[in-house]
Write a structure and sequence with these properties.
heterodimer; A: alpha/beta; Rossmann fold; Cytochrome-c3 Hydrogenase, Chain A, domain 2; two-stranded antiparallel ribbon; 17 helices; 40% helix; B: alpha+beta; Ribosomal Protein S8, Chain: A, domain 1; 4 helices; flat
Chain lengths: 360, 143
């Protein structure tokens, strides 16, 4: 059996009925954020699709992205890996080790040159010639540059691979950067999040398989179908924001009533992701539903963007320095700092002090 | 041996009272269903709502279930995991829920149609079945 035959042939060999496949495609349409009526069209395209070879490289990362994928509920990982893609290298999931493992990567790169998908999780350290992270004695930088040459496209998974993430956070001792900071001549899809939503990872792979092309991307290289709207815009607590009903601390009346968490530092209004609808753990919940604000983990520099508990509207700079500077520069700058802004900052600090040990 | 998930299922979960906690999604959803049902009645045009893509508040899924109720038809499909198809108390409005083999919901849709596509026998399956039936007939005549 050719391991890269069409999905339709594989399903037929396994005795999967067309009805079962149609059901699977309905789940895929939902996962790809396509109109629910698209299932039949997806079935027609998928039945003829050839399974792409996928090489997955893990660099400076915590394996959270792989953990997220292996807990993907839609479709099951078995479906994804064995039926939809040919995962030829993934050093955490593969059975092979040592020279055999590295050889399978080299073989796939050679056999499917120009056609394979390269998935990367983790940032890439550049300081001291990249020696801070190596695999089989080779630096991440070297492995990425080599594997990207024959890739049809690169899928950067997780905030570390997409924007540098936590390795890139101040003071960034290893000089960690994102995939897109190094590779400039290949199409790159950024699936950000810490970790990214598993259905988004599988959804992008399914989209490539179904349509033979990458999904439409936003200005940060993220697929619009998942990152097109903010958490805030799709949040079930949004009506409370519109009504001006806010929780002021994590244990007050507003928190118990499930009101908006904006004043407790929720980053929903500036965070693009689909947690509010896709949710987590088999649609059990998402952070806001569990009573905690969004951290903004799918946005660049989320770790260095001020406290998780400071409301977005509050200034994050040291106000005394700004006011002193304004006095020198003139009234124009000072006018930008209204009394209301200062009141907001005070409020933010007051609520913040209850929650964390010290503002960063 | 029982899995930890079995224990979780024994914890009773109650939907909050509608009046006490309502963000108004259900009313909007019912209006959309009525609009689609009107199209079906007038022109035969079918419609579908993907419930997984909607930001429903906790308890709203149960509220919707309660409001749409159950009509005359219930169907069960066993195809890479179970599927449950229920005609609601409003004829033409079907609630279709697909599960995977692990029992997780993989698709949850409202279909506004005379019969959901997934219930119909598929052309490819009919042909495969026909071949099997013909094989069986020829086996029987040649002892």
């Amino acid at each position: 059996m050719n391991q890269h035959d069409t999905l339709g042939e594989r399903l037929a060999q396994q005795g999967i009925s067309r009805r079962a496949f149609l059901k699977f495609c309905t789940a895929m349409a939902s996962m790809m954020a396509l109109p629910p009526g698209a299932a039949t069209a997806i079935a027609e395209a998928l039945i003829k699709a050839k399974r792409p070879s996928v090489i997955w490289l893990s660099f400076q990362e915590c394996t959270g992205c792989t953990e997220s994928l292996t807990r993907s509920h839609t479709p099951t990982l078995e479906n994804l890996i064995f039926d939809m893609i040919s995962l030829d290298y993934h050093h955490t999931l593969q059975a092979a080790s040592g020279f055999g493992a590295e050889k399978s990567r080299e073989d796939a790169m050679q056999e499917f040159f120009g056609k394979y998908l390269l998935v990367v999780d983790g940032a890439i350290p550049l300081h001291k010639d990249g020696v801070y992270s190596t695999i089989a004695g080779r630096t991440n930088l070297d492995l990425l540059q080599e594997a990207s040459k024959g890739a049809a496209a690169i899928i950067a998974v997780g905030t570390c691979a997409t924007f540098g993430g936590i390795p890139n956070a101040k003071p960034n001792p290893t000089g960690a950067v994102a995939v897109s900071d190094i590779i400039k001549d290949k199409p790159i899809v950024n699936i950000s999040g810490c970790p990214p939503i598993p259905a988004v990872i599988t959804g992008v792979l399914a989209h490539y398989l179904t349509f033979g092309a990458l999904p439409e991307l936003d200005d940060l290289g993220r697929p619009r179908s998942y990152y097109g709207e903010t958490i805030h815009d799709r949040c079930y607590r949004r009506p409370f924001y519109d009504q001006g009903k806010f929780a002021k601390s994590f244990d007050d009346e507003g928190a118990r009533n499930g009101w908006c968490l904006f004043e407790l530092g929720c980053k929903g209004p500036t965070t693009h992701n689909s947690c509010a609808t896709t949710k987590w753990n088999g649609k059990t919940s998402f952070p806001i539903e569990s009573g905690h604000g969004c951290l903004g983990c799918s946005e660049p520099n989320f770790w260095d963007a001020g406290s998780f508990y400071t409301p977005l509207s509050a200034p994050t700079v040291d106000m005394t320095k700004v006011v002193a500077g304004a006095a020198v520069a003139g009234a124009g700058v000072a006018a930008a700092l209204s009394v209301a802004d200062r009141a907001k900052k005070r409020r933010a600090q007051q609520s913040h002090e209850k929650l964390t040990t010290k503002d960063l | 041996m029982s899995s930890p998930n079995d224990n979780l299922k024994t914890i009773p979960i109650y939907a909050q009272d509608t009046d006490e906690y309502s963000v108004g999604n259900i009313r909007s959803l019912l209006v959309e269903i009525a609009t689609l049902l009107d199209k079906l009645a007038v022109s035969g045009e079918t419609g579908m709502i993907d419930l997984n893509s909607l930001p429903l508040a906790p308890g709203e899924h149960e509220q919707l279930r309660h409001m749409l109720g159950q009509g005359e038809v219930t169907a069960h499909i066993e195809a890479i995991g179970p599927s449950e198809i229920i005609e609601t108390r409003y004829p033409g409005v079907w609630w279709v829920t697909h599960y995977n083999v692990e029992g997780d919901i993989v698709a949850d849709t409202l279909e506004i149609t005379t019969i959901p596509e997934i219930i119909k026998s598929q052309a490819d399956d009919i042909n495969t079945g026909l071949e099997l039936l013909q094989d069986q007939i020829s086996d029987e005549v040649q002892p």
